Amino acid sequence: MTRKVVLKGTHRAVSAEATWSRIEPLLGDFGITRVADVTHLDHIGIPVMVAVRPLSETYGTSQGKGATPLLARISAAMESIEMWHAENFDRPQFEATAHDLELPYPIRALNVLPLKQPLERVRLGWTRGRTVAGGDPVPLPVQLVRLSSVGSSLWEPRVFKTTSNGLASGNSFPEACLHGIYEVIERHALAGLSSSRVDSRVPIDLSTLEDEHLVSLLDRLADADTQCEVAMIRNDLSIPVFVAFIWSPLYPLVAAGSGAHMDVTVAMSRAITEAVQTRLTRICTTRDNLASDYQPPHVSDPLLSAVAGRPLADMTEGYGATHDDLDTELQEVAGRVERLTGMSPVVADLSTRPDVFSVVRVVCPGLDYPSKGGNSIPRTMPSKTPA
């Protein structure tokens, strides 16, 4: 059993100080040259850091956010370490077709490209994963696990979408798996959102928040004259998933974030802080994978304050659960996914230093992924509320 350490906006296996003392001496081993504090390039003040890895085969920078500068620093560094592991994937591999293997899932239940031809007899590279809940061996396509813009020594047709969905790290294996599976669940919920029709999200009345940490985040936004809108995405897993949108006249573009977690506070905190991170990423122009929003910016209030919300307690009734240890939480979350899809979540262990931390790639056959990618969070502009 892995007991939780409950921190502001996150749950970990050990304290933030212990995590940083473990990973700081190893940053150079993974090509990280610096972790920069970019918080004060914006006026909001919620901590955001950037880890720089010049020899990356994907993105040269990784962003991190948190309730404290140390948590944000850890977030950025660990995301960069995750990407290094996905780029330098060196686990045993073998070639086969899906037809040759006794897969517990159909290949099209994975995050495949929109291909019409049959995929069962396409010869691919595979590696061994295991079910999250039971540990049973399950093959996974290497394309779903490895990430690189450099290429591979072996040629094979591109079958799956290239994403980092489910790639995660943690102080322990259960902690890493939870981060990964929550990201996959978050993307599954986002896949059902639309900017042109009514969807499953319900705006939250932020005046009904009682948690001290969430209130402090909103106070920081208010002090910075930054408007905030938060909505909960109702979903078939009954796991809290939130989206947040922020805007201020100083940088008049709406920035969005999302988060999922069995703990309502953690899920909403992730959404709000990710919106702040997204905004700072645009200000810093450190990522080239974000869609350009530099159309004529909003010249007036984009109506984030015009949405009538519902009390948080009403919307989260029957959602989430409280756990004292990470193992039990992981088993419940994986069980909810399996009951919905009929297929077990699968994990590939990418760890190179399991004595220090774990890096995994979690795959949940049957869950959806946004058609425009995980960085696209659509928002429907509301009508102004009559005075």
Low-pLDDT windows of residues: 383-387
Radius of gyration, rounded? Answer: 20 Å
Q: Helix count, per DSSP? A: 8
User: Helical proportion?
Assistant: 25-40%
Mean pLDDT, as a whole number? Answer: 90
Strand content range: 15-25%
The secondary-structure element order is EEHEEEHEEEHEHEHEEEHHHEE
End-to-end Cα distance: 55 Å
Rough outline: globular
Largest sheet: 6 strands, antiparallel
Q: How many strands in all?
A: 15
**What structural class should be given to the helix and strand makeup?**
alpha+beta
How would you sum up this structure, described in words?
The chain has 387 residues and is α+β, with helices and mostly antiparallel strands. It has eight helices and 15 strands. The strands form four sheets. Strands 6, 7, 8, 9, 14 and 15 form a six-stranded antiparallel beta sheet that branches. The N and C termini lie far apart (55 Å).
